[in-house]
Amino acid sequence: MAQQIEIGLNAAIVAMIDNNPCILRVPGPDALFADALPSGPFDPRTHRTMEIGLRGWVEEQTALQLGHVEQLYTFGDRGRHQSPDDSSPHIVSVGYLALTRVQPEQISALKMAGAGFRDWYEFLPWEDWRKGRPAMLDDEILPELARWAAIADKREHQSKDLRPSNRIRIAFGLDGTQWDEERALDRYELMYSAGLLDESVRDGRYKEKNVKSSTGRPMDHDHRRILATAVSRLRAKLKYRPVVFELMPTDFTLTALQQVVESIFGRSVHKQNFRRLVENAKLVEPTGASTSQTGGRPAALFRFRGEVLEERPAPGLRVGRLG
Length: 323
What we know:
- The structure is a single chain.
- This protein has helices spanning 50-62, 104-112, 135-155, 164-171, 184-193, 198-202, 223-237, 254-265, 271-281, 308-311, and strands at 5-17, 20-27, 35-36, 39-41, 66-75, 90-100, 116-119, 284-291, 299-304.
- Helices cover 33% and strands 20% of the residues.
- The strands form 2 sheets. Strands 1, 2, 3, 4, 5, 6 and 7 form a 7-stranded mixed β-sheet that branches. Strands 8-9 form a two-stranded antiparallel sheet.
- The protein has 323 residues and is of the alpha+beta class.
């Protein structure tokens, strides 16, 4: 008898809280995998499109109004929602990236329901370079990846470019290559394959994790992979579309804008270079007002200049990569 298949929708909902990129999490199944992404079914009888369905149940469950929404990927690997001998329908999930703005009262309401926002670097800590190169990369992650690749290279019959050692070199910016913030998903998948994540053990890939320290908060099912996909997509998107302003208040300082961009990319940007980039891109315009809430001298307030969308096809923030 053919197994039934159901379509679910998973949402990686991103908001900026204290200038940090945070992901909406809901309760997971147990103490270790206590975090999950919001999810809901797709009912074609009720919703004409998947995006309409996603927006509908997110608003119903969380009272959040989503701004930018885009489909990421379809996640349907066998076993992702099943335990052994489980005969229930196989769930194929369509992952989405969604951006929203939140108010303090919404955050409080979510907490009362057992949900809430968490900094996405709690789940992917090796991606945060704002205070320099994360020590965990050189202390444990890269040595263990090298050991895994030395074995995997020998047993996998494939071209040199697809060998694990070469994939690691490119994904982690080794041997003369650059760290590319857009490769967050590649790095997550290599770490999963090498047994460096709690999910690798839970899914039966390994008997125990191959590093002693924490490699971020695990998530239910393959939700951390969906999150890594969303991080990669948003980082890439910022370079050619002004979606960052979906996460900003209507009026903001250039310092606040820089902090948001840095927090998403996971690295610092030179202040004068950033301001020159924003000025040349003509993405913002002064409001004529200022704020004294920055703690120093009054800072000028700016707003997004929507006309830029009609002036050129790819208005984004093309900040340089880490060397």
